[in-house]
Amino acid sequence: MLIGVPKEIKTREFRVGLVPSSVAELVRRGHDVLIETQAGAGIGANDDEYKAAGATIAANAADVFAKADMIVKVKEPQPSEWVQLSSNQILFTYLHLAADAPQAYGLADSGCTAIAYETITDHAGGLPLLAPMSEVAGRLAVIEGASHLKANAGGRGILISGVPGTAPAEVVVIGGGVVGVNAAKMAVGLGARVTVFDRSVPRLRYLSDIFGNSITTRYSNNAVLAEAITQADMVIGAVLVPGASAPKLVSKAQLSTMKPGAVLVDVAIDQGGCFETSRPTTHDEPTYMVDGIVHYCVANMPGSVPRTSSEALNNATLPHVIALAEKGVKALDDDPHLANGLNVAGGKIVYQAVLDAIGARPAA
Q1: Domain spans of the chain?
Q2: Global confidence as pTM
Q3: What are phi and psi of 18, to 5 degrees?
């Protein structure tokens, strides 16, 4: 199979779909890989490294889209990309269609088979291709939140750890999954006081077991969460409903109850965000203010650490890339977990949570 990797074009997105070592493995197995020139520049991998791994270098993205049997990316295709897809191609990347109806309809119109990293499952019921980026995003959420607590960034003017004789920051993490666990690890490590909310009592027990007294665990309901955010310096939205829109857990009205200069970090923004006042931002302009509260809602947070992110992502995606390269769409029949990644096929949106979120296509 001919596998194509275009350069990512989303704002400040420096990751790459395949790192050179992944290309070498695919070539070793008899596949051809076509890489757009400078696609790996963001991770410090130049065209010569890809050539040494066995790839062919394409002069532009159009060449990649025109020739490849499978397109491997990181972020969801932009409008200029999805119009280049065709019915005989597989697209393998993050999609997050529940929050992006135009993309969903555009992919359906292309006729391609679109498989989303974020809805592929594993034997334990986890989301193995989402997990590595969730780990990165969870840790970055605290780093970025701490940075924006500084007064020059619009925040409350406090150091997350405090110093002897001063109080550390109060950090509330909503969601005890992969993002939440990694956010809690980072916040605890930086010396914050951390409270993690979740609706699963077994999950809260697990968090209590691994963190001990270094965090506080709370069962999430509207009243308790509403009280907690009034004391928070930083609130991290880390909820996930696989493939579906994120629930709105903090309303605009509640912002007036928070400390002026507190920071909201919405890691669920790819799925529509979990704060009512959230809207996607970019690394160029990562924050905005609403009622005196800093909102950090960058939709591709791991893109700011592309070397770590690309390597971690490839560790998870490569086995599936190999399966699709060797079997094509028949790989979905052989692996029900990979089949759970199928979001668009045969000109239709086939993932129910996406359909529930975006509804029927509006009449022309």
Answers
A1: 2-120+306-358, 131-303
A2: 0.88
A3: -130, 130
pLDDT digits (tens, 9 = 90+) for 324-335: 999 999 999 999
- Asked if 200 and 177 count as a contact pair (C-beta separation under 8 A), the reply is no
CATH hierarchy code of domain 131-303: 3.40.50.720
Please name every residue paired with 37 in a beta bridge, in sequence order, or none if there are none: none
**Side-by-side strand order, sheet with 70-72:** 56-58, 32-36, 2-5, 70-72, 90-93, 113-116, 342-345, 348-349
- Tens digit of each residue's pLDDT (9 = 90 or more) over 258-274: 999 999 999 999 888 99
Do residues 65 and 34 touch, judged by C-beta distance below 8 A? no
As a whole number of angstroms, the distance between CA 320 and CA 17 comes to 13
Catalytically active residues are: 96, 270
Domain 2-120+306-358: which topology? Rossmann fold (3.40.50)
Bridging pattern class, strands 113-116 and 342-345: antiparallel
Q: Do domains 2-120+306-358 and 131-303 have the same CATH topology?
A: yes
Structure tokens at 136: 């990165």
